[in-house]
UniProtKB/TrEMBL annotation, chains A, B:
<dbReference type="InterPro" id="IPR016163">
    <property type="entry name" value="Ald_DH_C"/>
</dbReference>
<dbReference type="GO" id="GO:0005737">
    <property type="term" value="C:cytoplasm"/>
</dbReference>
<keyword id="KW-0521">NADP</keyword>
<comment type="pathway">
    <text>Amino-acid biosynthesis; L-proline biosynthesis; L-glutamate 5-semialdehyde from L-glutamate: step 2/2.</text>
</comment>
<dbReference type="InterPro" id="IPR016162">
    <property type="entry name" value="Ald_DH_N"/>
</dbReference>
<keyword id="KW-0963">Cytoplasm</keyword>
<dbReference type="InterPro" id="IPR000965">
    <property type="entry name" value="GPR_dom"/>
</dbReference>
<dbReference type="GO" id="GO:0050661">
    <property type="term" value="F:NADP binding"/>
</dbReference>
<keyword id="KW-0028">Amino-acid biosynthesis</keyword>
<comment type="similarity">
    <text>Belongs to the gamma-glutamyl phosphate reductase family.</text>
</comment>
<dbReference type="GO" id="GO:0004350">
    <property type="term" value="F:glutamate-5-semialdehyde dehydrogenase activity"/>
</dbReference>
<keyword id="KW-0641">Proline biosynthesis</keyword>
<dbReference type="Pfam" id="PF00171">
    <property type="entry name" value="Aldedh"/>
</dbReference>
<feature type="domain" description="Aldehyde dehydrogenase">
    <location>
        <begin position="7"/>
        <end position="279"/>
    </location>
</feature>
<comment type="function">
    <text>Catalyzes the NADPH-dependent reduction of L-glutamate 5-phosphate into L-glutamate 5-semialdehyde and phosphate. The product spontaneously undergoes cyclization to form 1-pyrroline-5-carboxylate.</text>
</comment>
<keyword id="KW-0560">Oxidoreductase</keyword>
<dbReference type="InterPro" id="IPR012134">
    <property type="entry name" value="Glu-5-SA_DH"/>
</dbReference>
Length: 426, 426
């Protein structure tokens, strides 16, 4: 905390970020030298400190909420910002839960013995310094920092201005707990300036910050992806398809489609386009069930013929992530046609098939090139917790490093350890 | 080949690269649908076609060599460019060897069964379209294309202008063999223009090219790293350290140091800095052995005292990759001092310790944060072939995706396959 206080608000955002990241790098080396148990114990202390700091955090949050109301933030924005006893308790519980997750650091990925006697092993190690750029949800301060520390990484956090008091209070509590547990305070740093140039400085901090994780809406992620010179772990869009094959069991198809679209419409795993096979016998009932459940359906010509309440889809609908109770529906002629539609319009997040035909399902799982492909399941399962990862730093739709839900393993890299007995290369 | 011929030399490099990459993307989908055996068989045909095309390739190479001599290329440059029967045969053998490597595509990384019955598996899949930007060595045309195709990727190749005829002839032969084996010609494309703006277009082809691999000298790699908006797999420097601990066995230390520096001075795994423990008893003999073997030694004050032939090192020497029979030597006070020197000056490629003390060795292997860390072995072993990977597309010193020698596995990513029985998310 002292470092942050002394480093606060210099004139030059680039110098500020450099100072923070260099301190984070030094702290990361100390953090990596701690045992896994010591890192876990420090995180348990951080969770306790967060619970103990509830009055201060809630008071800080009240200041943010008042400022947000004065600035005219929407109800949805204010809800994202709002903390209460229950939410704060859930945040602290999540910190403790991450502390209890198995540590990927030190895991041996594989080993090899060479004919010359050299023994090779690939061992997981922390990535280093992770930059997190996020918007109004103050829980990200705790969630992201905790995942980073569990995997031996330092975190440089840059939250949104609307949550500045909440983030500062949460960060102070976490840091207090971590320091009491032997983790250097500089291992988790909150950028103490709301100057937007700090974000730009983080995005271009090659060699200082090893990876950037943006957490927030599409415009934030798009800006980060466009401007970053540091590797980014992110998804931009979740334009997710569910293909109801002609051999789908109708009750299952209806249940999955309604859940995939409507359980929560605002999450990135929500279905945005339904593809109905032209040979599927229960298509009118499927569309009716979605509309009856409160969904607006925008269809192509053949989908419009299924129910008179279907609205005509425009070309843009096939590339739109509604994040709302709106769905585009196309009728396709068999698997090939479905695969072609998905190849053209999917954002590579999560695409699913519903069918009782195992061979068709396996072809879909093999040929659809998305981070997550599903058979007979709701795309809303696209989530680190649901996948058993214990948490997630995000869902990646890029192709390198980590794909789909990313938790602790995605916050590590590896090194090669080579053990010899004096070998020289001929 | 037809595509490339018809696409040759349009006015706009960006449009050219877009056209090539889009064709590569389509071809990659067809390539990925082939079986592993079919891809391997096509590569064997490509190797055969390359052997059959030897007269044409050598004639093309002679044109490049004549042009290079006329342009006054150095002897080293001309040697890198030169092909003869033996070199071409070795290139074809390498293509066939990659064909025989185990295919990473389809490998199941791990599986999980969730309490709700969902069955998860992570399966390796090709990355997609790989851009290779390289300089004068025409073997890269075959090596890189072959590794990409083995792992189901399309390749967009951009070789140096000095090797344009050689590259064109090698590419034509490869493409002929691949097409005969059922691989679409557009899966391996050679950018048909030497306009330097094509390199810039490749580096910024987000969404069209999934990863760029630069192969060449430091200035090429630096430009690629500075300008790329596409992920890059590369190493910039191999500033590799060997630390001779006080408990090193002197004969082994001498043998390893001489090999690590002098076996081949121009490779990225060569030692550039030797750290000698101040308590190591045989330090003068170690330095003398290196100088006697033909190495120029630049030392700090204490190293200079070990042999009167040592030249005083400047500050820059500790951050210099000589790639020559030149070595910087520092005397350090124990492991901590060595670790601090390495943390400050290593480029994160390969660092080694020589010691008979197992505990010190393990601390070194754990705490040095480089892609490759070695105990009692020459850093010249830092090589995909020596590591048993069968080949390498490069050595990565970045921290994400793949690190150290990268071969087929590093040319893949993974997807999550989820198999359900109608599950919806509560």
């Amino acid at each position: 905390m002292t470092t942050i206080a002394t480093a606060s608000a210099p004139a030059d955002p680039s110098a500020l970020v450099t100072t923070l990241a260099q301190a984070a790098r030094r702290a990361q080396r100390q953090l990596a030298a701690l045992s896994s148990d010591a890192r876990a114990a420090a995180l348990v202390r951080a969770a306790d400190a967060l619970r103990a700091a509830a009055p201060a955090v809630l008071a800080a949050n009240a200041r943010d909420l008042a400022a947000g109301e004065a600035r005219g933030l929407s109800g949805a924005m204010l809800d994202r910002l709002m903390l209460d006893e229950a939410r704060l308790s859930a945040i602290a519980d999540a910190v403790a839960a991450v502390a209890a997750l198995p540590d990927p650091v030190g895991q041996v990925i594989d080993t090899a013995a060479r004919p010359n006697g050299l023994a090779l092993s690939r061992v997981r190690v922390p990535i280093g310094v992770i930059g997190i750029i996020y918007e109004s949800r103050p829980n990200v301060t705790a969630d992201a920092a905790t995942l980073c520390v569990r995997a031996g990484n330092a975190a440089v956090l840059r939250g949104g201005s609307e949550a500045v008091h909440s983030n500062t209070a949460i960060h102070a509590a976490l840091a207090e707990g971590l320091v009491a547990g032997g983790v250097p305070a500089e291992a988790v740093q909150l950028v103490p300036s709301q100057d937007r140039a700090c974000v730009g400085a983080m995005l271009t901090a090659s060699g200082l910050i090893d990876m950037i994780v943006p957490r927030g809406g599409k415009s934030l992620v798009a800006r980060v992806q466009a401007d970053a010179r540091v590797p980014v772990l992110a998804h931009l869009d979740g334009i997710n398809h569910t293909y109801v094959h002609h051999a789908a069991e109708p009750a299952m198809a209806e249940r999955i489609a309604v859940n995939a679209k409507l359980r929560r419409t605002g999450i990135c795993g929500a279905m945005e386009t339904l593809l109905i096979d032209s040979a599927y016998p229960a298509a009118p009932a499927l569309v009716a069930a979605l509309i009856d459940a409160g969904c607006e359906v925008r269809g192509d010509g053949r989908a419009a013929a299924l129910d008179r309440r279907v609205i005509a889809a425009s070309d843009e609908d096939w590339d739109t992530e509604y994040l709302d109770a709106v769905l585009s529906v196309a009728v396709v002629d068999g698997l090939e046609d479905a695969l072609a539609h998905i190849a053209r319009h999917s954002s590579g997040h999560t695409d699913a098939i519903v069918t009782a035909d195992a061979e068709t399902a396996e072809r879909f799982l093999a040929e659809v090139d998305s981070a997550i492909v599903m058979h007979n399941a709701s795309s809303q399962f696209a989530d680190g917790g649901e996948f058993g990862l214990g948490a997630e730093i995000g869902i990646a739709t890029g192709r390198l490093h980590a794909r789909g839900p990313v938790a602790l393993e995605g916050l590590t890299t590896y090194k090669w350890q080579v053990r010899g007995a004096g070998q020289t290369r001929p």
